[in-house]
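Exercise 7b. Backbone tokens:
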């Protein structure tokens, strides 16, 4: 499974820890930046990961900033992205089961590296349930004039 991961300066340390953990678990992780704690603008990194996921270059995306909220807002502006702001394991499960989320967003200020790893593993191992949820995800895609993700919602 190929992942695209990125952070801003506020999420850099957590990104590095999570990236190492995911790589040790066998995931193919493409680091889209940033590469230090020097101040950067998070929308640029959300766009890089969002475009990688929407284009199929990556199966899933992981975004980290101080709160996780800015990354989530920015990523959801990329057509075909369904980014979920996650802060616990239950949210990770249901964002995949019911919403077919393809990008997870984390807030470095609020979660530990251990919790980030647990959230990521649940998110990445949970399949979309389909059924009545496929119709709803299709309606979400229709809001952006997009069919991305609708073809595989069985």
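Sequence design result:
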């Amino acid at each position: 499974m190929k992942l695209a991961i990125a952070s801003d300066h506020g999420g850099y340390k957590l990104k590095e820890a999570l990236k190492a953990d995911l790589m040790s678990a066998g995931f193919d992780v493409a680091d889209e930046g940033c590469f230090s704690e020097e101040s950067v603008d998070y929308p640029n990194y959300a766009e890089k990961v969002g475009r990688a996921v929407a284009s199929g270059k990556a199966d899933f995306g992981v975004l980290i900033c101080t709160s996780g909220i800015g990354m989530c807002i920015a990523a959801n502006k990329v057509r075909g992205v369904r980014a979920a702001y996650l802060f616990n394991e239950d949210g990770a499960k249901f964002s995949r089961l019911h919403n077919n989320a393809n990008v997870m967003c984390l807030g470095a200020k609020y979660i530990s590296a251990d919790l980030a790893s647990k959230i990521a593993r649940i998110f990445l191992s949970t399949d979309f349930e389909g059924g009545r949820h496929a119709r709803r995800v299709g309606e979400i895609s229709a809001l952006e004039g997009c069919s991305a993700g609708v073809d595989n919602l069985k």
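Instructor comment: The mean pLDDT is 94. The chain has one domain: 2-128.
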